[in-house]
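User: I'll paste a sequence; please echo it back and then give the predicted structure.

Assistant: Echoing your sequence first, then the prediction.
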Amino acid sequence: MDTEERQPARLEALYRQWLAAPAQMYRAPSAMCFAVIGQARAEGQMTPEAESEIIAKLLTHWALQSTLDVSAMCATVPAARKVAA
């Protein structure tokens, strides 16, 4: 884990960037998202309600992305040939 990236000042800077461009958050690793959100909550920049809402959105995004990734992977695997009995 890159601890320099997880310093409070860096996490706060990322939070400000994500407020201006929320799509960046969805491209960040999940551990970084939780670190940034936790830091914002600890500093009082985010209400518990906002924290809950953004975590729910991230979890939904990650679940959907995972489903789409697996679906795409399955679509590229050739179906097994049926053996005549």
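The first helix runs from residue 8 to 20. The chain has four helices and no strands.
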